[in-house]
Amino acid sequence: MPFLDMRDRLIVGLDLPTVADAEAMVTTLGDDVTFYKVGLQLHFAGGLDFARRLRDRGKKVFLDVKLLDIDNTVTHATENIAKLGMTFCTIHAYPKAMRAAVAGKGMNDLRLLAVTVLTSMDEADLANAGYGGSIAELVARRAADARVAGMDGIVCSPEEASAMRAIVGAGMTIVTPGIRPRGSASGDQKRVATPTDAIRAGADHLVVGRPVIAASNPRSVAKSILSEIELALSR
Asked: PROSITE patterns recorded for this chain (predicted)?
């Protein structure tokens, strides 16, 4: 895995309704934040052009589109995404979809992340969706499939990060959403952890959305999280 600048470990999720809102947030956060996630909400509001502008300004971009479709579609979609200069792109961790994405990426620098189980899901949600077994078992199976498929990393909750490191090895990236600084509301996230706990569990990047973008002082919160990451890495 490439060397990580400490600031790149924090990925701020720009889950905002308009590009204008996202532009304003990036301005507010300034040079303290170097990495942003552009997800589906913003994607359908002109977010792809915005992502290109972020790239051109020297920011790293996590394009969170969670591809899942027939093999041919996933392959060609990934081919096009690979030309955009993004840093990360997500694929749902189904073996055929992951293999198709890897084929589409080719030798490009884009890093493909396999989404294991969404952090908004708990054991009851998994059972309601028709899956047997526990979340931990499903995440582990999908992480192993991602490694075999040649993916560059996985997305899992911080609760599973430590166990997944043993499965994917040191060379694959582990990205953890569901990060909530102490005192923050969990919202619709069910498998959460503090920045310190996630880093100590082995996460490489922490995705933080609402605790930053909904704060009265987003830059102060981002800087606090970065300080917490730095302290966790030093111990």
From this structure: OMPDECASE (PS00156)
How confident is the model over 215-224, as pLDDT tens digits? Answer: 999 999 999 9
> What does the pLDDT look like over 27-78, one tens digit per residue?
999 999 999 999 999 999 999 999 999 999 999 999 999 999 999 999 999 9
Full domain range(s) for residue 76:
6-234
Backbone angles phi, psi at 37, to 5 degrees: -100, 130
Q: Is 210 assigned a ligand-binding role in the annotation?
A: yes
Q: For residue 83, is it within any domain?
A: yes
Q: From CA 235, how far away is CA 233, in angstroms rounded? A: 6
Q: Is 1 a domain residue?
A: no
The pTM (predicted TM-score) of the whole model is 0.91
Active site residues per annotation: 64, 66, 69
Any idea what the CATH number is for the domain that residue 16 is in? Answer: 3.20.20.70
Residue 68 lies in a domain: yes
Q: Is 68 annotated as a binding residue?
A: yes
Residue ranges in the chain modelled with pLDDT below 70: 1-3, 182-192
Q: Identify whether the C-beta of residue 12 lies closer than 8 Å to the C-beta of residue 27.
A: no
